[in-house]
Amino acid sequence: RRHPKLFLSLSVFCHVGMNAAVRAVVRMGIYVGAKVYFIHEGYQGMVDGGDNIKEASWESVSSMLQVGGTVIGSARCKDFRTHEGRLRAALNLVQRGITNLCVIGGDGSLTGANLFREEWSGLLDELVQSGQISEEAAQTHSALHIVGMVGSIDNDFCGTDMTIGTDSALHRIIEVVDAIMTTAQSHQRTFVLEVMGRHCGYLALVSALACGADWVLIPEMPPKDGWEEQMCHKLSESRLRGSRLNIIIVAEGATDRHGNPISSNTVKDLVVRCLGFDTRVTILGHVQRGGTPSAFDRILASRMGVEAVLALLEASPGTPACVVSLCGNQAVRLPLMECVQMTQEVQKAMDEKRFEEAVKLRGRSFENNLNTYKLLSHRKIDAELPRSSFNVAVLNVGAPAAGMNAAVRSAVRVGITEGHTLFAVNDGFEGFSKGQIKEIKWGDVGGWTGQGGSLLGTKRTLPAKHIDKIAEQMRIHNINALLVIGGFEAFESLLQLVDACSRYEEFCVPMCMLPATISNNVSGTDLSIGADTSLNAIVETCDRIKQSASGTKRRVFIIETMGGYCGYLATVGGLAAGADAAYIYEEPFDIRDLQSNVEHLTEKMKTSIQRGLVLRNENCSENYTTDFIYQLYSEEGKGVFDCRKNVLGHMQQCYYAYIFGHFALLVDFVQYHIFVCFVGRVFANTEDSACLLGMRRRALVFQPVIQLKDETDFVHRIPKEQWWLRLRPLMKILAKYKTSYDVSDSGQLEHIVRLRLSV
């Protein structure tokens, strides 16, 4: 069927990641047979018309994935706020036959788009009466359909877990914090960082959680009276424990309980006056809006862009304007004005000093992050701690992954807060068998969040090899629970320990695993700690490689990624980097497929896009090696393009970690099973006493490892079913391959969940 014309409008601010959304909308629109237009300079371009509204081509959105901001411009528009301006905009759209609008912006832009839609029929009547359009044109274009995507670094829009641009802004902030920490530590300084967030403290809160800041000030939860003394006491206590630096993060809209602004300079003056610390202020400003988009933002924007096109194609005259949102790991469609109204309710709650309610209205992600920060940063004095005689051991198992140290820090501090004694095990189960176990305190894990690798040490050794000695060490140290952080080896280890329960009572304790592996190959979870950081390393390398080819036309790069037999890194990295193909074990290929890809690249070289990028998972084929594919492409492409190859190797494991999560859930799980199974001593041997905490679609869930056994291919160390395989057709479509796209998993219009708030 003939699809309607699509119109793409970018409004208000430009944010990193928007170009990926623009690219996805344009290419998906062309794929389904629609004409796609975009407008330059946002609503101003819609009002002014003329050359501001142009038809988009496939090539017009090439080479923009790695570019920050927006290549089609963005501007505030006073004219669109007037009836006359919207009338001119309607005329410009009707003249081009456009009745579908995709708007990327914040709540102001989306509210304006919805008002435009509500006025549409009246605007057309006015244009008919004034003779500017015919009755037939008004009937043909009688309905205006709108789909929104939220672009905002503040993550201040209710209804979505993450907005386009937020993750990239967090990367900019953490990069600055990492750089500042070195000079702060050298000179024993306190740094006050001011980040964006006039009405929303998400950036300040999550960056404070990710870097382990000593104090954070956000507008949703102003500090209680007397905060000045509490903050200075905490900073002083930190120095007495041996810390050489302090980090304080302030959102630009931070206030006290009485509405008085708290600026970064106010905080600096307070620290200098009360403590005499050498204190400096850094205001990040618009640095947070720019730079290269993160892998997460590119993937999010690409998925949202495709979902937006599908939503427009399925829209009917009675369909309300919707916004494409992210819930957990799933794309959903929500009524636009429901989300806008809840977003406005947050500000109303803040204005009326109902701060607890404002936090809840922000959504589960914001509330969980705030609770986690409170748990991890504010140490209770010993007299306030609940009393417990339970010992919990934490260890890393398998290959190192970025985020392991942050996970250990979180588990240790939450466990101590709950009154347990935490023991750190060095070098995994091999170290466990040798007795490399020692008590770990609150201050021992200070500064661990930003460090890559595993400070505890990690080995791939499975416990079965040393099961007797491990049981003995469990008995010697009276270990009542195990927290295992690692990849596939950690999963296998828990299965072996569960199997050993019948022979060794020492293993009849609650055991919980947190998946941490760059390969993202563990059953029971859509995402693993470390995978996102590895994707960023891959995408950054691909960007540099593509840039190196900017002056050399007709060149194809073959890149080998890690992942074992799991093609997650190759597939999702390929989507984020704009690859032409990605070879993986899960999708078998032969020489005909390779030849087809060569022919596809040959045709591509005839266009203005004269370079190619191909990713190959390290174990995708025993015979079609990276060298083979490189030589094949070089031979078959002779005279058309030349080839280069690159094996990324262990650089994918070595980046800093940016992790924030729900480690309180781990300790809650352990506590629940400890108390349920405590009869004189801890004895837990039920199926659900050994679980994996993972993200499944929209929620974090505990799953017994025994149940996950049937979902796992142990020969190739991958889950039998993997959600990200559904992204492969999307990658192929955006690379201009003719392929089918399964819409069965696309979002359906839902309603925003309103929390029941106690008065």
Offer a quick outline of the entry.
By secondary structure, the protein is α/β, with parallel strands linked by helices. 40% of the residues lie in helices and 16% in strands. Mg(2+) binds at residue 107.
Task: Name some characteristics of this structure.
single chain; 759 residues; alpha/beta; 8-stranded mixed β-sheet; 7-stranded mixed β-sheet; 16% strand; disordered C terminus; nucleotide-binding; ATP-binding
| Secondary-structure-derived class | alpha/beta
User: What share of the residues lie within helices?
Assistant: 25-40%
Tally of helical runs: 24
Give the CA-CA distance, first to last residue. 53 Å
Largest pleated sheet: 8 strands, mixed
**Residues in β-strands, percent:** 15-25%
Shape call: globular
How many strands? 25
User: Low-confidence parts, pLDDT < 50 over ≥5 residues?
Assistant: 10-15, 654-667, 674-680, 755-759
Structural summary, described in words:
The chain is of the alpha/beta class and 759 residues long. The chain contains 24 helices and 25 strands. The longest helix is centred in the first third of the chain and has 23 residues, at 107-129.
Layout: helices, strands, pairs:
Blueprint: E1 6-10, H1 18-31, E2 36-39, H2 42-48, E3 53-55, H3 83-95, E4 100-105, H4 107-129, H5 135-140, E5 145-150, H6 166-187, E6 190-195, H7 202-211, E7 215-217, H8 227-240, E8 246-251, H9 264-275, E9 279-283, H10 295-314, E10 322-327, E11 330-335, H11 336-351, H12 355-362, H13 364-377, E12 391-397, H14 404-417, E13 421-425, H15 428-433, E14 437-439, E15 458-459, H16 467-476, E16 481-486, H17 488-500, E17 511-515, H18 531-548, E18 555-561, H19 568-577, E19 581-583, H20 591-604, E20 611-617, H21 626-636, E21 642-647, H22 663-676, E22 690-696, E23 699-704, H23 705-708, E24 712-713, E25 718-719, H24 728-734
Parallel strand pairs: 1-2, 1-4, 4-5, 5-10, 6-8, 6-9, 7-8, 12-13, 12-15, 12-16, 16-17, 17-22, 18-20, 18-21, 19-20
Antiparallel strand pairs: 2-3, 10-11, 13-14, 22-23, 24-25
Helix pairs in contact: 1-10, 2-3, 3-4, 4-11, 6-7, 7-13, 10-19, 11-12, 12-13, 14-22, 18-19, 19-24
